[in-house]
Specification:
The protein is about 50% helix and about 20% strand. It is α/β, with parallel strands linked by helices and about 450 residues long.
């Protein structure tokens, strides 16, 4: 069948057709709930999130703008299955349809739990949970900062435990909100304040139990770094025994409840007193035994100790012996040096300097005469050799040979001397050097 323009009906432009399809999609599917797996997740400089949502049979492009993404309580990742509320739209420049998401949440597990696991994994990789960073808890604190709600049961439990176990310890209460919008900042500021004041050497961070949403302030990254950066050790007692928060992992010591945190912070005064009394008794007994032992040792030493007068006489005799030996040594030393001096004096008299000078002067005169004789003899030999060489040089001088009637033939072109007639060609110009002047000749005939 032949299709012509007449029977095709209305003709659409690409732009118009795309706009009508866009309107049809957006009017038909203003908002839809979609589930699928995230892949190709990317966040460019604009801050918007672009990804692909897929199942085992199909894929569709998705985008979530920066403003909507800020309301999420977790971080979307590749491979994560999600459920989201989106508007269906068509991107006209590429003719591709996409989902513009207004809300996302993980499929199955809640977003708060996912955010908790993501933050826990991130902080663990950065080393905030490592034991090497944990600070030791003081055995007996001079003062303890308690950071918790000022009206909560956790504070009452800590105060009761402190009164029961060690009432002398000073408690510094820093009341904060433990849930709600401002709770995270208030807790971080309280830790910073305790470090600034430096009036205590231990911090208890506590609150009662609650849901994961109620404990959100204790699962924040800001609080994790506040605890990690604290110079004062931190004990956490948050929630019930089964509740674990990010603060618990970063803290220097984790207690299952606020009361348990107080038990760890305050030693039992009664037990300490009993232990002190026991140690005091052991010390007194040990001192008595040591004094008795030392007394016996003194008595034993006294029985073996010589009389001081006898010791003095022994040292006096020893000193007199040393004095006698020293006098003899000095006499021998003086006699030896006296004999050595006399010997050196005699040796000096036998070798007077004036005799040495006269002998050396005569030797110098003899050497000077010998030097003069050898110099004159050597000069005569050099003159004779010079005359002989001068005579030979004159005989070998080419000018002398030329004066006897000989001549030198050489090429005009390169001044090379001719030794063999075979080296010369006809018509070559030859310069003939005579005793007086030169001749330029041309070769007309060569006789071999």
């Amino acid at each position: 069948m032949m299709i012509t323009k007449k029977n095709t009906g209305h003709i659409y432009t690409v732009s118009k057709l795309t706009r009508e399809i866009k309107s049809l999609l957006e009017d038909t599917y203003p908002f839809v709930w979609v589930t699928g797996e995230i892949s190709n997740f990317a966040v460019p400089a604009s801050g918007h999130s672009y990804f692909t949502l897929k199942d085992h049979q199909a894929v569709i492009s998705g985008v979530m703008f920066k403003n909507q993404k800020q309301r999420l309580k977790f971080r979307p990742e590749n491979g994560m299955k999600i459920v989201g509320l989106a508007r269906l739209s068509l991107y006209e420049p590429r003719g591709a349809y996409q989902l513009i998401f207004e809300h996302l949440e993980p499929e199955g597990t809640g977003s708060i739990q996912v955010a908790f696991e993501q933050l826990k994994k991130s902080l663990s990789a950065k080393g905030l949970f490592d034991d090497k960073h944990k600070k030791s808890i003081p055995f007996l604190s001079s003062g303890i900062s308690v950071i918790t709600s000022g009206t909560g049961a956790a504070l009452r439990d800590i105060i009761n435990v402190s009164r029961r176990r060690f009432s002398n310890c000073c408690l510094e209460i820093i009341p904060v909100k433990v849930q709600g919008k401002e709770s995270e900042n208030e807790i971080c500021n309280a830790i910073f304040l305790a470090n600034q004041l430096k009036s205590t050497d231990l911090i208890i961070l506590a609150r009662g139990g609650g849901s994961l949403e109620d404990l959100a302030a204790f699962n924040s990254e800001a609080l994790a770094y506040a605890i990690f950066d604290s110079h004062i050790p931190v004990i956490t007692g948050v929630g019930h025994e089964t509740d674990y928060t990010i603060a618990d992992f970063v803290a220097d010591l984790r207690a299952p409840t606020p009361s348990a945190a107080a038990e760890l912070a305050f030693p039992d005064k009664k037990n300490l007193m009993q232990r002190i009394f026991k140690l005091q008794e052991n010390l007194n007994s040990a001192l008595k035994n040591e004094i008795a032992s030392l007394h016996k040792t003194v008595l034993s030493l006294n029985s073996r100790l010589k009389s001081p007068e006898t010791i003095v006489y022994d040292f006096r005799f020893r000193l007199e012996d040393y004095e006698s030996r020293l006098n003899n040594m000095m006499k021998h030393y003086i006699q030896y040096n006296k004999e050595k001096f006399n010997w050196l004096l005699q040796a000096l008299q036998s070798g007077k300097p004036d005799k040495k000078i006269l002998s050396n002067r005569q030797h110098i005169v003899s050497l000077l005469n010998l030097l003069t004789y050898n110099f004159q003899k050597r000069l005569q030999v050099i003159k004779t050799n010079h005359l002989e060489l001068e005579t030979k040089l004159k005989e070998l001088n080419p000018e002398a040979v030329l004066k006897r009637g000989y001549s030198i033939s050489r090429f005009v072109s390169n001044k090379k001397v001719v030794f063999d007639s075979n080296d010369v060609k006809l018509k070559d110009q030859i310069e003939v050097v005579l005793s007086k002047g030169q001749l330029i000749t041309r070769v007309e005939k060569i006789n071999g």
